[in-house]
Design brief:
The chain is α+β, with helices and mostly antiparallel strands and 772 residues long. The chain is built from 15 helices and 50 strands. The longest helix is centred in the C-terminal third of the chain and has 12 residues.
Length: 772
């Protein structure tokens, strides 16, 4: 009998040849030859703890080759049943009559038994006709003792009734099922939807669960299904109450569904067909292609056809939902300004470790629908945003701006969709918070209740977060408001009147292989800076460095002159430390003028001891004079400030399974080559994956041509022959180079770009030989 491999796929209804040849893994499909060199079988499997190997006979393979050589189709019939060969002594226990045994032995003197039915799929050709335990005697008037004979008789009668004679408990039974087409229950098309792949439930998958060959199989859930909790390997059986016998039914249903519209799917996980689940998913037409791809048997390709355009999404009716009350007056005042924000990432780029984030937000402007969140809730601009109000109403949102230096972001929703819910703008107070001030922490809990508790302000301390792992945004150059007890979730710090003094931000970082986060409070002065940046009233200016606070004794040992130490102490008696350069941004205006370890003691002649003092000094300035101490020497450098992007990553290219963009600020702090295309992510199974073209590398050359930037990269690859091997030179952050060869596949891994234009993301195809 065919061996059981223990996977989703197992061969059945065939004999195997067994021999103790101890073939190794990877030899499957190799020919098995006799002493004359004739091929007898194909190597198919083997035991890992024994010498036993298993070979697939070639009886039906030869037939298929002969038909293909004659340019004829290869019909294959099925009753959707599984048979097992049993010896005569077992058949007697099953009730085989002496007469039937005698006839079988006479027909096949070398035979040792007959075929017994072990599986019959529901709703298949043999459903309610054949039963488990039936002993097969004849098919179409021919005696059947082996699998080859059975398969040959079925293959010749696809679509026709066939007379099947079995013995059931000693009684002879004759039935006439219609032979099914095996090719019809092998998927030959798939739906490319929301970054996932769906196709008809296959015969093998249905057989493994003893379910009808009906429903739609989620081969890969991707972005659209995965964000709403439908796993890969699920089987979808209904859409909005409409049964889904096959993929065509799902395609017909989704063809009229616009982007963002909910679709209610009923499904079950593989292996649990009697445990149905129901999930509302949001249709995706923006981030990924929505297309049906069907196999062309003429050339083996899989051409794709986009789903028809759908009408625009109509705004859904929003139920009136009252905000949950609070016992504290500050809580009552803030309850109408606190919301929950969910962020789903269709593409992970810029080192972001996950694809789903949830956090609390503060409404800054209820008239414009502006909400403040942290960058552990919205880490990058390439995001799909959902805002939840009062724990009951969900509305779509969009990214407006990310603070380029600090852990804050602004998203927006359409205020017209929630105009009856009584949402209000929070009032910001710009006065600095002093140690000992009486303040309160207000947070939105998971159950949409508001918690208020008194906290004490402590002396501020700089925050340093680990920079392990893939380069990604992390908070730096900040002294958050220190509170006791420290906040544990998003929320706000307020004064007695309920005015907002700071925002509790979750600050994510990587430590070793673990993703961690701490919650700290960012002053409203920085919030106002982001509001101005988002509205276009200001531009973020910065210098390309990461700073730290060096204890004063250590700074003196490194050469800080005593006079400079006295000047700093006079300026800030409470700060017994000196700012020092920890890292530099590659390619920045500082890179050739400043060195790591330099002490920063003044900007434009004014002493500086805190990060925020430097940021204030840079505001609105094209250049500044910084005073450095290097090995005891005093150095004055005039440096140009840099305008920082409120999005960081504004263009992503998808090529050969890679996600490529200009290096983001965090990558430059890690030593990545500036301006050159940066490999941020790769997909397993892609051409890049096979070539081992790993992320966190810069692309230096393609096909022998220098690649100084992303646009040059696109121009070069557009001129290369489709499908030809490409020589790629890459470099990691340690300046180590590697030369790899990659073979693109435009059919399954087309070149595309995602570009931020006029406040929204646009996806464009970049076909071979076409430039934007």
């Amino acid at each position: 009998d065919a061996p059981i491999y223990g996977s989703d796929f197992n061969d059945f209804n065939t004999f195997y040849i067994q021999a103790a040849t101890s073939t190794s893994g990877g030899s499957s499909g190799s020919p098995v030859v006799d002493v004359d060199g004739d091929v007898l079988a194909l190597n198919a499997g083997g035991k890992t703890r024994a010498a036993s190997s298993f070979y697939l006979p070639l009886d039906r393979v030869v037939r298929a080759i002969e038909l293909i050589a004659a340019d004829q189709p290869v019909p294959r019939g099925t009753l959707q049943t599984r048979w097992a060969h049993e010896p005569y002594d077992e058949l007697r226990r099953l009730g085989l009559s002496e007469a039937s045994e005698a006839t079988a032995r006479e027909q096949a003197p070398q035979g040792s038994g007959l075929l017994v039915l072990r599986e019959v799929l529901p709703l298949g050709p043999a459903h309610q006709l054949l039963q488990i335990g039936d002993v097969l005697l004849e098919v179409a008037g021919e005696p059947v003792h082996d699998f080859v004979t059975l398969e040959g008789l079925l293959d010749d009668r696809v679509g026709q009734p066939v007379e099947v004679v079995v013995e059931r408990g000693g009684e002879r039974v004759t039935v006439s099922p219609t032979v099914g087409d095996l090719h019809a229950i092998v998927p030959s098309s798939y739906l490319d939807l929301g970054g996932g792949v769906l196709h008809d439930l296959s015969y093998h998958q249905a057989r493994g669960m003893q379910m009808p060959v009906r429903g739609v199989y989620v081969a890969s859930n991707g972005f659209a299904l995965g964000r709403d909790g439908i796993p890969s390997k699920a089987i979808v059986v209904e859409a909005d109450g409409v049964p889904l016998p096959d993929l065509d039914a799902l395609v017909a249903h989704l063809s009229g569904v616009p982007h963002g519209a909910p679709v209610s799917l009923r499904w079950y996980a593989q292996g649990t067909p009697r445990q149905l689940n129901q999930t509302a998913v949001r249709m995706d037409r923006r981030w990924f292609p929505a297309q049906l791809c069907e196999r062309d048997d003429g050339d083996g390709s899989w051409p794709c056809t986009p789903l028809p355009d759908a009408p625009p999404l109509r705004p859904a009716a929003v139920p009136r939902a009252s905000l949950l009350p609070s016992d504290d007056r500050r809580g009552r005042r803030l309850s109408s300004s606190l919301v929950q924000v969910e962020c789903d990432l269709p593409y992970q780029v810029a080192g972001v470790p996950n694809d789903n984030y949830v956090g609390g937000g503060l409404i800054l402007d209820a008239d414009q629908g502006l909400v403040l969140v942290d960058r552990d809730t919205v880490p990058i601009a390439l995001s799909e945003i959902t805002v939840t109000v009062a724990g009951a109403v969900r509305v779509p949102g969009r990214v407006v701006a990310l603070h380029p230096l600090h852990d804050l972001a602004i998203v927006a929703y359409d205020p017209a969709t929630v105009q009856d819910l009584g949402l209000t703008s929070a009032e910001l107070a710009l006065e600095p918070v002093e140690e000992g001030d009486k303040v309160w922490s207000v947070t939105l809990q998971a159950d949409a209740t508001v918690e208020v508790r008194a906290v004490e302000v402590r002396s501020p301390e700089p925050i340093y977060l680990s920079a392990d792992g893939a380069p990604r945004f992390r908070e730096l150059n900040l002294e958050p408001i220190a509170l006791d007890p420290r906040p544990e979730r998003n929320g706000v710090l307020v004064d007695r009147a309920g005015r907002v003094l700071g925002f509790h931000a979750s600050m994510s970082y990587t430590s070793g292989r673990d993703t961690k986060a701490v919650v700290r409070t960012i002053p409203t002065e920085i919030v106002e800076e982001l509001v101005a940046l988002a509205s276009g009233r200001g531009a973020a200016r910065g210098l390309g460095w990461e700073l730290r606070v060096l204890p004063l004794p250590e700074a003196l040992q490194l050469g800080l002159p005593a006079a400079e130490a006295e000047r700093l102490l006079a300026h800030d008696p409470e700060r017994r430390g000196v700012l020092a350069v920890r890292r530099l941004v590659q390619g920045s205006n500082l890179a050739d003028r400043v060195k790591t370890g330099d002490l920063v003691v003044a900007v434009d002649g004014a002493p500086v001891t805190r990060f925020r003092q430097i940021e204030r000094a840079l505001a609105g300035r094209d250049e500044v004079l910084i005073k450095l101490i290097r090995s005891g020497a005093v150095i004055d450098e005039v440096v140009r400030t840099e305008t920082l992007s409120p999005l960081d990553v504004e263009r992503v290219v998808l090529w050969a399974g890679l996600r490529i963009h200009a290096p983001h600020r965090a990558a430059l702090l890690h030593g990545i080559e500036p301006s050159r295309p940066y490999i941020s992510w790769w997909n397993g199974g892609s051409p890049a994956g096979r070539a081992k073209l790993y992320p966190r590398r810069s692309i230096l050359e393609v096909a022998g041509q220098d690649i100084p930037d992303l646009q040059t990269f696109l121009e070069v690859i557009a001129q290369l022959p489709a499908g030809a091997p490409i020589r790629v030179v890459v470099q990691d952050q340690d300046q180590e180079r590697e030369v790899l060869t990659l073979e693109p596949n435009g059919a399954f891994w087309p070149t595309q770009e995602l570009v931020w234009e006029q406040g929204r993301w646009i996806r464009r195809a970049l076909p071979e030989g076409s430039l934007r």
